[in-house]
Write a structure and sequence with these properties.
Layout: E1 2-10, H1 11-16, H2 19-39, E2 42-47, E3 55-60, E4 63-68, E5 76-85, H3 89-96, E6 107-111, H4 114-129
Length: 130
């Protein structure tokens, strides 16, 4: 089963951290990610740019509006996504509970809706054919 793990962190706390401590933290995270690769559980991942570069769009009164930054009342913001292969949700939780990134903030773990994804891929292939 595929899972997407959204990693949250407090950007201001990260920016206040000494550079050497940031590097040590990242080294530990990357080493754990390498373990996930070796075990076959790693499907990929992406880090996100600063929330300062984010825009939130929404439909309001029939028009699209854009607001700078994420629309959230919390210090923690999504910092990246990790794509994971696991037997089930409990296995995904067990794997991610060992990730050093938990020191920076929580991970939200959600199963991929593979049926919906297959439907999107089939429609995309149909449209590509013309």
């Amino acid at each position: 089963m595929k899972f997407i793990c959204s990693g949250y962190f407090d950007e201001s706390a990260w920016n206040a951290m000494p550079e050497a401590e940031q590097q040590t933290f990242m080294d530990k995270c990357l080493a754990f990610d390498a373990e996930l690769r070796r075990s076959g559980n790693w499907l990929g991942g992406e880090a996100l740019q600063s929330v300062k570069n984010a825009v939130t769009i929404r439909l309001k009164n029939g028009a699209v509006t854009a607001t700078d930054g994420p629309f959230s009342e919390t210090k923690e913001q999504v910092g990246g996504l990790l794509y994971l292969e696991a037997r089930d949700l409990n296995h995904a939780i067990a794997l991610m509970s060992k990730h050093p990134g938990l020191r920076a903030g929580p991970f939200e773990i959600r199963g991929v809706d593979e049926e919906f994804t297959r439907m999107i891929l089939a429609k995309s292939a149909e449209l590509a054919k013309g």
